[in-house]
Write a structure and sequence with these properties.
single chain; alpha/beta; 8 helices; 7 strands; 17% strand; binds NADP nicotinamide-adenine-dinucleotide phosphate
Length: 260
């Protein structure tokens, strides 16, 4: 066991957090924010260890504590591999953020079975079993925060409906699990980003093919801009803190008013 919780200062001092897909994008924003709030942060990655190391270094540079753990999600035994890696560093968790996810551009007509299975395996099956195996490690009074999407509640991008369906399933999981784990004082919520500037949509958002993508994405938000990972991280930080103790089973719109 290497890193230890409890040495940091801040409203999450003494807490340990695990952020799946914490190495890049929204997950990195969440990991850095929870680290600044004093949590010991497990930064999970799939294949890009370098990105995870950079995130750990950024957290440490800001005075926080973190470690990286690798596990490819969507593969057999993924949740067990993730927790085995985690267990080598820490002996329990207070905040589990199921953030890692994948998207594809395939439409209803084009999605084949392999792509369908992959989307559900990474976006829904992995959070399910990570949470199931994590429940015994999660301390009473803990937090589970699932990163959903505005697309689960509004058909604004029907061209990627399979991705939206995975997030809809995650929302149902969230609501029901809040009742299962509520007796232990554990809250379970979903945070739903709108369009956020990350690698997941970089080809479309910043690509040459659709030069209007950035402006039209910004225009979708009532606030007139594309989201930043920090916009989502701050909402997660609220739910993770004691201030969020009475919020559970909820789907929190963090789309900057894109669905308003
Ligand atoms: P991103 O920039 O592509 O980062 C994805 C993260 O998840 C990386 O850390 C990646 O690690 C990890 N990951 C992906 N597939 C994995 C796999 N099979 N096994 C293990 N790790 C894997 O994505 P993002 O935009 O930050 O998205 C984060 C979450 O927000 C996702 O659940 C996404 O659906 C949701 N979301 C995003 C947006 C948006 O506009 N960006 C909007 C709504 C919801 P490696 O690099 O090591 O694989």
């Amino acid at each position: 066991m290497g890193a230890s919780a409890g040495k940091q200062q801040g409203r999450l001092a003494g807490k340990t957090a695990l952020v799946t897909g914490g190495s890049r994008g929204i997950g990195r924003g969440i990991a850095e924010r929870l680290g600044r709030d004093g949590a010991l942060v497990a930064v999970h990655y799939g294949s890009n260890e370098e990105a995870a190391k950079e995130t750990v270094a950024a957290i440490e540079a800001a005075g926080g504590a973190a470690f990286a753990i690798g596990a490819e999600l969507g593969a057999a035994g993924d949740a067990q591999a993730l927790w085995s890696a985690f267990d080598a560093h820490a002996d329990g968790v207070d905040i589990l953020v199921n953030n890692a996810g994948v998207s594809t551009a395939s439409s209803f007509a084009d999605t084949d079975e392999a792509e369908y299975d992959r989307l559900f395996a990474v976006n829904m099956k992995a959070p399910y079993f990570i949470t199931q195996l994590g429940a015994e490690r999660l301390r009473d009074g803990g937090r589970i925060i699932n990163i959903s999407s505005g697309l689960s509640q509004a058909a604004v991008m029907p061209e990627i409906l399979t991705y939206a369906m995975t997030k809809g399933a995650l929302d149902v999981f969230t609501r029901n699990l809040s009742k299962v784990l509520g007796p232990r004082g554990i809250t379970v919520n979903a945070v739903a980003p709108g369009i956020v500037d990350t690698d997941i949509n970089a080809a479309w958002l910043r690509g040459e093919e659709n030069k209007d993508a950035w402006a039209s994405s910004a225009a979708m938000s009532a606030l007139g801009r594309v989201g930043d990972p920090s916009d989502i991280a701050d909402v997660v930080a609220f739910l993770a803190s004691d201030d969020g103790r009475w919020v559970t089973g909820q789907w929190i719109d963090a789309t900057g008013g894109s669905l308003a």
